[in-house]
Design goal:
alpha/beta, 2 domains, 10 strands
Length: about 250
């Protein structure tokens, strides 16, 4: 059986490329299993960033409806893929150069940064086959206020990249996805590993806390980080007008 997710690791970056073009990179059992394997490889290699991309005219068409109609559905493996993308301390970037539908939007939205080509279209088509965008609402509604995506969820009507950007579903719209992703990866690699990981955790945690709890937790974190070796090196590099030499094992 041909490989449906190609995983490459280079320069401290793991790239997971969906390559199941006959079904528009649908989330089949094999493809989801290979996504888990790719994430395992990325974690084992302790990469600095994970990029999820695809080949063909579609980034991901969502659930493999043929598989879903052949037997009882098992949504848990895909739910774990989304959770792993959200929870890994490594920044995750979706590189989207083709159409995205249904569960593919959940895969994309689970990444910290979402870079899409300007002509990409999106649709949350679940209601049109008699279901709801239930699982994928978790990553989507972490990014987007409900009122801004209600029409798309309730009607299944397609929307474009500019609308996706305005609602907060994607972070970057560009004519050159590869160049934008490379720029973002370079920025991630320029930061200290722990500082980047703590920033990702902060982005998820602080909005869930009340003001005083958030201020207390972040004051403690700030004090700890400013007292640590990365801050010493970073501030020395700033004074000396050189690049920091981060500890690769930190």
């Amino acid at each position: 059986m041909p490989e449906l997710v190609r995983t490459t690791i280079a320069d401290d970056v793991a790239t997971l490329t969906l390559d199941s073009q006959p079904n528009r990179n649908a989330l089949s059992r094999q493809l989801v299993s290979e996504l888990h394997a790719g994430l395992d490889a990325a974690e084992d290699a302790e990469v600095r960033a994970i990029v999820v991309g695809a080949v063909g005219p579609a980034f991901c068409a969502g659930a493999d409806l043929k598989e879903r109609s052949d037997g009882p559905p098992d949504s848990e493996p895909f739910a774990r893929v989304m959770t792993r993308l959200m929870d890994t301390p490594r920044p995750t970037i979706a590189a989207v150069g083709g159409a995205v539908r249904a569960g593919g939007i959940g895969l994309m939205a689970s990444c910290d940064l979402v870079v899409v080509r300007r002509d990409v279209s999106f649709a949350l088509t679940e209601v049109r086959i008699g279901v709801a965008a239930a699982m994928i609402s978790v990553p989507i509604l972490r990014r987007v206020p409900p009122a801004k995506i209600a029409a798309a969820l309730l009607t299944g009507e397609p929307f474009d990249a500019d609308e996706a950007l305005s609602m907060g579903l994607v972070s970057h719209v560009t004519d050159d996805v590869d160049a934008q992703v490379a720029e973002l990866v370079s920025g991630v690699r320029a930061g200290a590993r722990r500082a980047v990981a703590e920033t990702k955790a902060m982005l998820a945690l602080v909005p869930t806390l009340d003001r005083d709890a958030a201020m207390g937790a972040m004051t403690e974190l700030s004090t700890e980080l400013f007292s640590g070796p990365d801050a010493v090196e970073g501030m020395a590099a700033f004074r000396e007008k050189r690049l920091p030499a981060w500890n690769p094992d930190a």
